[in-house]
């Protein structure tokens, strides 16, 4: 093969590889397109894809309060599907679902997606969060859909810090504020000197001479 032919073949190969790379970046719900969070679980069953799944706890281990299940739910089908429940196998913790509007069911539209967790999104709140796995572990989570059924996966348990701050529980502990109310001192509560009706040595008493003079008149 001549040198020019070899150069042409190499150029064609490079072009094909470049096109393949671009196609991969633009295809579907891949990590680059979705900006996948660090240490996030993902799975696909039927028309439903679940990505970026995590259990986000309070920022501190000793903090009281709820935890949440955060994830992005994709519906690749032609009919909407309702997220009926989220459960944590092996735990007695219960998960309460709330739509983005605060009422109604969490519905993933056909060809669309729903985000669980974060301000203005739907939520899956673990009320008794102490029963959930501790940060650093993997918690079994089952998403139950109206048509796809149950979809299990292992979600990483992370505290609501750094990247996950915006996806953590909406009810976070607040440090108690010191009272700035002024308290009266002891000196301020004293009785003013010379108050009316106060008995003391300053009381004026008529002398005997003045009394006698008054009687003579």
Automatic annotation (TrEMBL):
Keywords: Signal. The keyword Repressor does not apply. It comes from the Bacteria. Residues 173-217 are annotated as: Disordered. Residues 1-26 form the signal peptide. Residues 177-190, 202-217 have a biased composition (Polar residues). InterPro entries: LpqE-like, PCuAC_sf. This is DUF461 domain-containing protein. It comes from Streptomyces atratus.
């Amino acid at each position: 093969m001549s040198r020019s032919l070899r150069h042409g073949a190499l150029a064609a190969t490079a072009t094909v590889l470049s096109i393949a790379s671009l196609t991969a970046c633009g295809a579907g719900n891949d990590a680059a397109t979705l900006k996948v969070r660090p240490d996030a679980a993902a799975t696909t069953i039927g028309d439903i894809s679940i990505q970026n799944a995590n259990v986000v706890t309070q920022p501190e281990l000793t903090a009281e309060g709820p935890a949440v299940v955060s994830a992005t739910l994709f519906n690749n089908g032609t009919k909407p599907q309702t997220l009926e429940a989220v459960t944590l196998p092996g735990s007695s913790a219960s998960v309460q679902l709330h739509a983005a509007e605060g009422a109604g069911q969490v519905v993933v539209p056909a060809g669309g997606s729903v985000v669980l967790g974060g301000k203005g999104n739907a939520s899956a709140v673990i009320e008794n969060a102490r029963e959930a796995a501790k940060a650093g572990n993997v918690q079994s989570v089952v998403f139950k859909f109206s048509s796809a059924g149950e979809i299990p996966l292992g979600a990483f348990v992370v505290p609501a810090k750094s990247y996950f701050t915006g996806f953590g529980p909406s009810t976070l502990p607040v440090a108690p504020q010191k009272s700035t109310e002024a308290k009266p001192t002891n000196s301020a509560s004293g009785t003013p000197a010379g108050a009316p009706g106060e008995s003391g040595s300053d009381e004026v008493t008529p002398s005997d001479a003045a009394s006698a003079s008054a009687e003579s008149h």
